[in-house]
Amino acid sequence: MPKLNQTEVKSTHNKHLLILLILLILVTLFFTGFIIIYRQDLIYPPLHRDQPSPKKFVESVDQNLPDILPKPKVIEHGSRNKHQIALTFDADMTVGMLGLLQRHFVKSWYNYPIKQTLDKEGVKATVFLGGLWAKTYPNEAKDLANDPLIELGNHSYSHPAFAKNCFKLPVIDVTQKTNEVLSAQLEIERVTGVVPKYFRFPGGCYEQADVETIAKLGLKIIHWDVSANDGFNQDTNSIVRKVVNSIQNGSIVVFHIHDGPYAPKTNDALVKIIPELKKQGYQFVTISELLAN
Ligand SMILES: [Zn+2]
Prior knowledge:
Helices cover 48% and strands 12% of the residues. The strands form 2 sheets. Strands 2, 3, 4, 7, 8 and 9 form a 6-stranded parallel β-sheet that branches. The chain folds into 2 domains: 8-67; 74-292, TIM Barrel. By secondary structure, it is α/β, with parallel strands linked by helices. α9 links the parallel β5 (198-199) and β6 (220-222). α10 runs parallel beside α11. The structure holds zinc ion. The site of zinc ion has 5 residues, from loops. Zinc ion is lined by residues 90, 92, 155, 159, 202.
C-alpha cells in the first residue's frame, strides 16, 4: 500500500468531514420533517398550561366519542307529542342536470312558485341546497336565505350517491365524501352568507361510516319520515294523498324544489296540502324549531 503524503491525508480528512456534515444535515432535516408532520403539538404551544394542545384535544375527543357522547344519528322526525311538522325541500343539482340546463333541454331547475306559496300561506320550511344549485342560482339562493320563513340546509355539492343503489346516482369514492359536504357548505356560505347546520344525504342514501363523518364536520343529519313522492311524479293528487295520509306529530316531510321534469307537480300539490294540514291544526316549523325541544 502506497504511503500518502501530507496533502493527500488532509484532502481525505476534509472529504470525511464533508460527508459527516451532509449526514448531519440530512438527519436534522429528517427529524424536523417528522416533528412538522407528526408532532404539531410540539410546535404549537398549549393554549393553557393545564390544557392539551388543540390537536391533542381533537384526537382525544375522536377517540372517546363513542363513550362520552351519544352516537351520531340520522334524524327522521321531531317530538311526537307536539302538533308540529317540518316541510323540507331539496334543491338537487347534479353535473348532468347542469348540462341539461346549459344545453336548454330544461328551462329551469327552480320551482319559484313553491316559495310564493310558502310566503302567501305564511308557512315555514327548510330548503336543502345543493352547492352546485347555489352556484347556478346565486340570486335565488340569496332570496331564499333572506326569507324569514325559510331555513337553509346543505344537500352536498353535486348530489352524488354516498351508498350503492341510490336512484341510479353515481356512487362517489369515500375520499370524496367530505369534499362534497364541505364544498357545498362553502358555496352556500359564499352565495348566501348562511352557514348551514344541517345536512341531508342525496337520495337519503348513506353508509354508517358517513354518519360519523358528517357528525365530525359539525353538521346534524336530517332524513325524513314522510316522503311526498313528488320526484318524477305527474300525479298531483297522489302526492297530496301520500303526505296527508302519512303525516303525524313531529313529521319531517321531504319534497323537491327543483321543478323541471324531475319534480313537476310539487307546487300544485303543495297548494292543496297546506290548507288541509292547517285544517288539522298542524303548526309549520323549521328544522331548528322542530328539534329545539
Ligand atoms: Zn336530493
